[in-house]
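Figure 2 data, in text form.
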Amino acid sequence: MQLPFEQFPALDAIKFCHHVFAQRIPAIDVSHDKAEVLERLDAAHQEIRNAIGVGDWPLFTAEQVHGNEIAVIDSGSRGPVNREFPACDGIVTNQRGIALGIYVADCCAVYIMDPKTPAIGLVHSGRKGTEFGVVTNAIGQMIERFGSDPADMVVQLSPCVRPPHYEVDFAAEIVRQCRALGVQHIDDSRTCTACNLARYYSYRAEKGKTGRMLAVIGLHPTIPN
């Protein structure tokens, strides 16, 4: 059986960047609360992480509270095991051999890749997070903590809910915010989750009883100079 995931050409072009966007897992009943849904999806998500070569890497996720706080993983904070950072909606790191993860079901997973430093970020940005500037904060943390230059960054927007299924086009606002910071390479999947329930989960279209897609990004342990 083909694993239900997709990858993006802009990130595929960076050979030391591992990434994936897990799609709907059709065989799994997701008509439960979020905690149970994630538990039910865990084995399939692990299989997808295995398929892209990061299955044995520590996985760091965010609590996702629709705010703008960003967790930073540096050499002193990475730890050896999986961890969820509380009260934040994004994670940035320059550490290699670890995976960052974000769960979405209409909100946008925003992948940020700085191939020069190198450093990466992964952000959960829906309507509220976008209004609060969560992606702007993540890019700012990468500039401050890792010396990243927005002009070097590649930003990729995942599938998310869009008009006419949602009254606000927050994906367009994410793109605008990134351009205002000097990011030149921005790729938007331009895909609406609510338009294709065979492939994606949609909190809006399924009235809250749905699963979560998993976005993952990581830097390969060995990066050529």
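Caption note: The first strand starts at residue 5 and ends at 6.
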